[in-house]
Design brief:
This protein is about 75% helix and about 0% strand. It has 18 helices and no strands. The longest helix has about 40 residues. The radius of gyration is 22 Å and the shape is globular.
Length: about 400
């Protein structure tokens, strides 16, 4: 069979499309990645109905490695809000403490049990999600190690299966403790004043077109690239920092990639790039990876929760809340939001709480879960992966 670009493109997007439906039906417990990986392995490596270069034929493999990764990380940086991060400084400390625990674990116990390559390559993915996995996968591909790229990508697809149950249990216990301590009637609203460094005026309606959003993202990407060359800092980190800075300054709008209409295409390119190697991976080879994948995820989740509890104790947090924030690195937004609200709703259902009491419970868990996930998944894990992943292949 002779494959052309549109045929290959149709197969790829149909696989992800059906996977999205399954993810919705299973409430995220079975991700679209898992379904698409299975399709690629069955019809690619096993039956050989799909060519191993399907992604390249579809024209999707170059999106990420050309401009996609720049736009992605500038956009991630633009989603961060300084005032929210500042107000939840304790959450940031707890989250970073959990990540430090994961790093120490991977360099010690993880390396001893699962081997150096698996343990060190897993650090970015355990500490975060798509962004860190893209960085590690890219470093592995450049080093001629597609097996490691497959390993971290597969690990990413199973993060929720490990992180969600732990966070759910801990959040429910944290809410129970909050209510039992009588804090539903105590106002704990933050009195911190906002901080504003905006210098650019609001964008006029005439300059809010699709191409201008793209142009601004690209300009910030260029600045990030130049900053990387000038300082020697990792380029990915610079894209993230410049996206954050120029959004706070008012030059870049939040959600610019979505407003430009290019978010879904860039995401498709990113997802496709991660799954390239599964078209030639057999189930036997995958099964050989499952022990270190789940072993490192379970060990990482346990250490992250434990380290967060230790740090949280100094900040006078309950162990349950600390543990929930600690494992946000395995969940990420929007799952962190969903789990927090699920815990709140389950505790107020059928109860006669006033609106302000319900809001206090919400304010107790929701900002911490969301900011915890942002800190680990969107910021710290990318920086960690950017500096650790390249050292693995030297």
């Amino acid at each position: 069979m002779s494959w052309n670009a549109i045929m290959a493109f149709a197969v790829v997007v149909l696989s992800f499309g059906i996977g999205d439906i399954i993810a919705i039906k299973t409430k995220g417990y079975v991700s679209s990645f898992i379904f698409t990986i299975a399709i690629f392995m069955i019809f690619g490596a096993t039956l050989h109905w799909l060519p191993p270069n399907l992604i390249e034929i579809a024209g999707l493999s170059n999106i990420l490695i050309t401009y996609g990764i720049v736009l992605t990380f500038v956009n991630i940086g633009s989603s961060l809000k300084f005032n929210e991060l500042l107000a939840e400084w304790k959450t940031i400390v707890v989250s970073i403490g959990a990540l430090i625990g994961v790093i120490i674990m991977c360099f010690t116990i993880g390396t001893l049990v699962f081997g150096r390559e698996y343990a060190i390559s897993a650090i970015g993915t355990i500490c975060g999600g798509l962004g860190a996995t893209l960085v590690t996968s890219g470093a592995a591909e450049n080093a001629g190690r597609p097996d490691i790229a497959i390993f971290v990508t597969t690990m990413m697809t199973f993060q929720n299966l490990v992180g969600v149950p732990i966070a759910s249990v801990c959040l429910n216990r944290a809410c129970n403790r909050f209510i039992a301590d009588g804090r539903m009637s105590v106002d704990e609203e933050s009195k911190m004043k906002g901080f504003n460094i905006k210098i650019f005026p609001d964008t006029p309606p005439i300059a809010q077109g699709m191409m201008m959003y793209f142009a601004k993202l690209a300009i910030v990407g260029v600045i990030g690239s130049l900053f990387s060359q000038f300082t020697g800092l990792n380029a990915t980190v610079c894209y993230l920092l410049m996206g954050f800075l120029f959004t706070e300054l008012g030059f870049l709008e939040r959600g610019s990639l979505k407003k430009s209409g290019g978010e879904n295409l860039v995401l498709l390119g990113s997802f496709s790039y991660l799954l390239i190697n599964f078209l030639s991976l057999t189930f036997t080879e995958l099964l050989q990876m499952m022990f270190p994948i789940f072993g490192l995820l379970l060990l990482g989740a346990g250490i992250a929760a434990l380290a967060a509890i230790v740090v949280g104790k100094f900040l006078k947090w309950t162990p349950w809340l600390s543990a929930a924030v600690g494992v946000t690195c395995l969940i990420g937004y929007p799952m962190t939001y969903g789990l927090a609200m699920e815990a709140v709703n389950s505790h107020i259902f059928g109860m006669d709480y006033k609106e302000e009491e319900t809001q206090r419970l919400t304010n107790y868990v929701l900002p911490k879960m969301v900011i915890g996930g942002v800190t680990s998944v969107s910021i710290a894990s990318v920086i960690i992966a950017a500096y650790i992943a390249p050292t693995l292949f030297k």
